[in-house]
Amino acid sequence: MRVIVPLVAVMVLALIGYAGSLVSPGLFGIIIPYAALLIFVGGIIWRVLKWAAVPVPFRIPTTAGQQKSLPWIKDAKYDNPSTTFGVIVRMALEVLLFRSLFRNTSMELKKDRNLAYIQELWLWGAALAFHYSFLVIFLRHFRFFMHPVPPFVPLIQAFDGFLEIGVPTLYMTDLALLGAAGYLFFRRIWYPQMRYISLMNDYFPLFLILGIGISGVLMRHFFRVDLMAVKELAVGLFSLHPALPAGIGAPFFIHLFLVSCLLAYFPWSKLVHVAGVFMSPTRNLANNSRMKRHINPWNYPVKVHTYEEWEEEFHDLIKDCGLPLDKE
Amino acid sequence: MSSISYQTPATDWMDTPVEFRHGNWCHSANPKSLEYLGLPYPRKWAACEDDWKLPENWKEIVLEGMRDRLQRFRTFRIFMDICVRCGACADKCHFFIGGGDPKNMPVLRAELLRSVYRREYTLAGKIMGKMVGARELTVDVLKEWFSYFHQCTECRRCSVFCPYGIDTAEITMMARELMSLVGLSIDWIITPAANCFRTGNHLGVLPHGFKDSIDFAADEMSDITGVKIEPSINRKGAEILFVTPSADYFASPHYYTLLGYLALFKEIGLDYTSSTPTR
After folding, report:
1. The dihedral of CA B98, B17, B9, B149: what is its sign?
2. B221-242 b/e (C-beta count within 10 Å ≥ 16 → b)
3. B8–A283 CB contact, under 8 Å
């Protein structure tokens, strides 16, 4: 159920894109993409501001190594950072190389009461491939967004298509994106624990992105569209002088509408982890509570039990056993 | 050990209620300790009973508590929004590894609280409910929280493996605070806290109790070595305040460590004193 509904939803969205291309290309070609982009940018800013408005009362970075103490004890500079530089390196390794996922292990309980941890890099590999190929594909699309084409685009195309298979040439990142996203979906339904915890909110973005990728690949290799007209539309959108040329085929509108849906859905879903990872207090704080005093911004006076109160309660007991008293 | 099954139950996790059996629940806090600390709704109740004697407006209290904490703890707010259910944390919790209960997977432990958060704080949760993993806060949900948030030791191992560092320990702390707002705490936490408040040590040992134990230990050491040892307690003007772990005067074999350092301090002439309230 949780899988079928999002799948049908994405198919319905694709159909809407198709219908839109026939009925109202102006709405689907200009107005909806602009609205989606506004919702995306505004939504992300809104989420970030909402998080930033809440204070971080305590220093709680998660550490995975030796804390800095005496000078002759080697501390884990990046796993237990005590300086801002350490935090930056840790965050960079996390965001660029998915460091935490690289630690991932799978567990096996053997018959002789032995628990074994085995390195498990499929999740790390698929996640990295997925995110990086998405980035490369996005950068390649600047061929359409800008005129003249920025110099990094032909460079990327040269590397991406170096296998020179097919005309137009098959891009490795296309395969990587679909393969990695496909694997991420597959592992979500294959492993029982993953099936148990997955929600519609997990399947929907996967199907949406798979839909975008598949429609893109289909458009490039099978159902060709008028690329010059597409470029005219795209340059118009990005230079804020939108114009809708005639004759752009339906596959393009399906692709564009799915992209617009992804942009509009982004800020209200788990995809905001893009911004959240930088703001997570367990990763972006240095573990320096022993060196620097941190004050809780909403600290309030706490009721304490003083020595005088303790002595008053047990006065007779203390006197009887001969211990010293402040007040006889 | 070989009987640990990691098979997921046939029922969906929202439809699998907790079963409180003999030995799988913690004793509830002694009302006297709660009263001493000024914590709300002290009363006698037990997890195995059906009626937990919750106050009438328990749901409002918990939800208001949640709203308040979402405004004071950025961790709480971000961790509720960021989880992508990648499952990297799933087999990292030693409680899950040792028991096979899927609600001990950190991702699902967080979902126990997150599902209520979604229902209250997200539009999709309010409209689409269970389909998007949102659920109403009911007494059964509260009971589930009581069972599972006391099966987390807040060791934070899961947080190391999470790509964003989502800390189930933080979430557990939030859930325990929310439960404590309606008087659902465990004795193992509250009574030591009340004891610390009143007597300065978590066992509630009174001044003469500590003095007698230390005197007894000193006498025993004196018998063994033939050298008279006079331990110092609560002496003003000492150079060093020596705070001994409570286990050292309560149990073997640590008891012999106590005898050892009493003798050591005498031998090196250390200017120390112990403290009856603190240890």
Report:
1. negative
2. bbeeeeeebebebbeeeeeeee
3. no
Q: What is the C-alpha to C-alpha distance for residues B2 and B17, in angstroms, rounded to an integer? A: 25
- The mean of the pLDDT values for chain B is 92
Are B168 and B128 in contact by the 8 Å Cβ rule? The answer is no
Cβ–Cβ < 8 Å for A255, A16: no
Return the residue of A nearest to B86 by Cα: A194
Q: Are residues B77 and A62, on separate chains, in Cβ contact within 8 Å? A: no
Residues B177-211: tens digit of each pLDDT: 999 999 999 999 999 999 999 998 888 888 888 88
Domains in chain A, start-ordered, CATH in brackets? 4-320 (1.20.950.20)
Q: Does B101 touch chain A (CB under 8 A)?
A: no
Q: What is the pTM of this model?
A: 0.91
Residue A153's H or E segment, with its range, is helix A152-160
B84 closest CB neighbour out of A103, A270, A307: A270
Domains of chain B, by residue range, sit at 13-195, 207-273
Q: Residue A279: left (phi > 0), alpha (psi -120 to 50), or beta?
A: alpha
Total residue length of chain B? 279
Strands of chain B, DSSP E: 240-241, 272-273
According to DSSP, the β-strands at A105-109 and A115-119 are: antiparallel
Nearest to A54 among B77, B97, B198 (CB): B77
Mutant choice from B11, B15, B75, B105 vs A, greatest count of A C-beta within 10 A: B75
A209/B272 Cα distance (integer angstroms): 69
ipTM of the complex: 0.90
Q: How many CB atoms sit inside 10 A of residue A55's CB? A: 13
